[in-house]
Design a protein that fits this description.
With about 525 residues, the chain is α+β, with helices and mostly antiparallel strands. It contains 16 helices and 16 strands. The strands form 5 sheets. The protein has a 7-stranded mixed barrel.
Length: about 525
């Protein structure tokens, strides 16, 4: 709307409206065209824009697809222009093509008095109310499209029968946290010169080579794969590899027992994702939810054996009942557990000895510090922080966001340097304001209750040994000569000891002057 073009460039037949692109998937050319748009002095109203968009949809959309109009405006038209349009006429035009209207403006309309509305905003409010449209501010709309997101897909449930003794309940498991997809690999391209001196781009391919200790190159067919047992390689043939795959396991989901919830602390949680377990259909919902309710009342969790599919290894997991989340139905949360033989690798050192040395006030201060570092679950009344964005899978990956930003900048501006990291990506690495404020109070308690003493650097082992040797030497007195020998010792024993000591010392020792000022050059060749 508001184009300077004097000629009609749109299928709508209206002036000062330009058709930027035909109906298609978004591409870089469309983004470049939008990026080059400039402000004009032509005036137009959003009401005229709606009529033009409806005519455009009639011409372009021939199937029964979902149709939406996204209207961006400051909604500040003069009253004499607004008075020319009727709410019912606009609603009738939108309903004729089953169009959903999304309006994006400069300020929030729900938080201000209707008397302060402009005439254009008042008309828009009535159109959205009667047409069940949606309104948002520019700031909120930009926050929704600020990050690159993966397209939503319909989850495919994993179905099985949950066994409890002789009783079976058909269940469906849906992955709660999906693994993040891998980023596309970068391809290396080199410029080469052809025979006619023309440059062309050639894809660089990495060809793997296998060499032995003698630097002899071997092909892939000559390789024998195996495992390292310490420093010794153990070669395994393909037949042996296949024989190690279990062939007798069947798909199952079996409850072996129940235990108190405190017996399964967080340090036992092993899996990198979780499953939400729900009844397979409504016919088995009664026994399933009865089990969930009983687990909540007894405050227990179920220990299960899970075989994902036939001929795969069995895994152990715990089922936690979940009934307190208002956004989710009653369900069981499956979290993987380690076997006893595997727990030693992830076990942590016990802190009971250190905790016994703390006073009750110091222990409470540590608990307050840990509590202050917890992420917010819900948004506070006086805060705009939404706790839902910290849920697993909801926080965008800063590294992936930066890579997409770089690729977009390189596609739009190939000859310009790459832009710096945006503030939005940096803010992903910043802690929430509520955590920062709560952490300050907890840290002050820690500083006041725990004293830090500067550790004196310990002397080296050589200095300690010399000090011990000096301490073992007795002081000079009348019973000892200047060499520390006892005068009461017989002359023969002195000669014998002296001779043995001289022979022993002369083999391994070089005598240096007693004073500290000696010349190292004189003994360099000794």
């Amino acid at each position: 709307m508001g184009s300077d073009s004097s000629e009609n460039d749109s299928v709508t037949g209206m002036d000062n409206i330009r058709e930027l692109s035909n109906m298609q998937f978004g591409n870089w050319n469309l983004i470049e065209s939008i990026d080059k748009l400039q402000n004009t002095k032509q005036s137009s109203s959003w009401m005229e824009g709606i009529y033009a968009a409806v005519e455009y949809i009639k011409h372009e959309c021939l199937d029964n697809s979902e149709r939406k109009i996204m209207l961006l405006s400051d909604f500040n038209e003069e009253e004499d222009i607004v008075s020319q349009f009727e709410v019912d006429d606009i609603i009738k035009t939108l309903n004729s093509e089953n169009i959903f209207l999304i309006a994006i403006g400069k300020r929030q309309l729900n938080n201000i008095d209707e008397d302060s509305y402009t005439s254009s905003e008042a008309l828009l409010k009535k159109v959205l109310e009667k047409g069940n449209g949606q309104y948002s501010t520019f700031e909120h709309a930009m926050s929704e499209v600020r990050f690159y997101k993966q397209s939503s897909t319909k989850p495919k449930p994993w179905r099985c029968d949950m066994e409890l003794g002789d009783f079976c309940i058909p269940i469906a498991g849906i992955s709660k946290v999906m693994n993040e997809p891998m980023l596309p690999k970068m391809k290396k391209i080199a410029k080469t010169t052809a025979a006619d001196l023309t440059e062309k781009e050639t894809l660089i391919k990495n060809i793997p080579q296998w060499t032995d200790k003698d630097r002899i190159i071997h092909t892939k067919e000559d390789m024998s794969y195996g495992y390292m047992y310490g420093s010794k390689p153990i070669f395994v043939s393909d037949d042996c590899e296949q024989s190690m795959i279990p062939k007798t396991s069947e798909k199952c989901y079996k409850i072996h027992g129940f235990t108190a919830r405190e017996n399964v602390p967080m340090e036992y949680w092993l899996s990198d994702g979780t499953y939400v377990i729900i009844p397979a259909d409504e016919s088995v919902s009664a026994p399933f939810y009865s089990l969930v309710k009983a687990m909540v009342e007894k405050n227990v969790v179920a220990i299960i054996e899970k075989v994902y599919r036939k001929n795969t290894e069995a895994n152990m997991a715990a089922l936690f009942p979940s009934v307190d989340d208002p956004n989710e139905p009653w369900c069981l949360i499956e979290i993987g557990l380690p076997f006893e033989r595997d727990y030693g690798a992830i076990a942590q050192h016990p802190l009971k000895f250190m905790m016994k040395q703390l006073s009750q006030e110091q222990s409470n201060a540590v608990d307050d510090l840990l509590t202050s570092l917890e992420l917010p679950e819900d948004a506070d009344e006086d805060s705009t922080v939404d706790g839902d964005k910290y849920l697993p899978g909801c926080m965008p990956n800063p590294g992936a966001q930066r890579m997409w930003d770089v690729l977009a900048a390189r596609a739009l501006h190939p000859d310009q340097p790459l832009p710096p990291i945006t503030e939005d990506v940096k803010n992903l690495l910043e802690q929430p304001e509520s955590v920062r404020e709560n952490g300050k109070l907890a840290c002050e308690k820690i500083k006041n209750l725990f004293s830090l003493e500067k550790k004196i650097s310990s002397r080296t082992k050589r200095h300690k040994k010399l000090e011990e040797e000096n301490d073992d030497k007795a002081p000079l007195n009348e019973d000892h000569d200047m060499h520390g020998n006892n005068k009461a010792q017989s002359s023969k024993e002195q000669e014998k000891d002296t001779g043995e000591d001289n022979n022993e010392v002369s083999k391994n020792t070089t005598f240096l002057p007693a004073d500290d000022d000696f010349d190292f050059d004189k003994i360099a060749n000794i």
